[in-house]
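INFO  loader      accepted 1 record
INFO  loader      residues=320
INFO  predictor   begin
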Amino acid sequence: MKRPIALSCGEPAGIGPEIAVKAWDALRAELPFFWIGDPAHLPAGAAYELISSPSDAHRVSGSAMPVLQQSFAGSAQKGEADSANAQGVIDAIETGVLLVKSGAAAALCTAPIHKKALQDGAAFAYPGHTEFLAALDDKEDVVMMLASEQLRVVPATIHIPLKDVPNALTPQCLESTLRITRAALQTQFGISQPTIAVAGLNPHAGEGGKMGHEDDEVIAPVLEKLRAEGFILNGPLPADTMFHAGARAGYDAAVCMYHDQALIPIKTLDFDKGVNVTLGLSFIRTSPDHGTAFDIAGQGIANPTSLIEALRMAARMSDT
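INFO  predictor   done
INFO  writer      dumping tokens
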């Protein structure tokens, strides 16, 4: 029997609880998962059943969403984060990590969090989910991948201003990103000899130094070094020609130099089905590629597609 997926509740005042119920309804005959959270935060009338162990998820999932109960101190007024709930949100994530690392769950899927509420209520010291998970796993280097059926992209630098990218894009940073990406494609996606397309930093990949020297002086030497080790790398490539259908057919993932260079293509191609995957952890972690959506929380109109795809991807990766 396959182990179930753990789904941490995320911010209870956001859309996380309602899309969890919608995802369960869509997936109950396909794959079992259990939700870690407070059932009082679920939509009125939601079909759920409390479980005492992840192993109970299979028995319950056909008729109700399995819930591993987590206590929260505050209320859950939809659209209004309560910092009193910060510790409960953190505890739910930690519980999920422990269950996956112990082998009780196959993978962790995380619903969106609200970082300010965590900082205000629990002095949360991390920029986001990814960095917190890395700390829980005692990892220094992890990588964010956005993935769908049409494209996998990895930004080498993430949440920093564009003006800071050239300084942050060191050879060590790029090499680590490429090593982690290749290893994950092999071990978690089942691609034995992955081909990775690598974007240049500047327009036209610098055009021989006419539009910047980083492509020739920083990126190209790293690619040469890793090719000598057997990596299959294309680049540095002009980013504006990397993402049409013909180009995408030639690689398994694209490594880009900054946030928007990576995320604009995948969100244009497959906005609702993009999945956030953390590479470099000792366990599988996926997440929907959207936020808490306070503006529509509680209205019953939130689209669960990205969460459904995140749960499906977690299940596929755990089967590899």
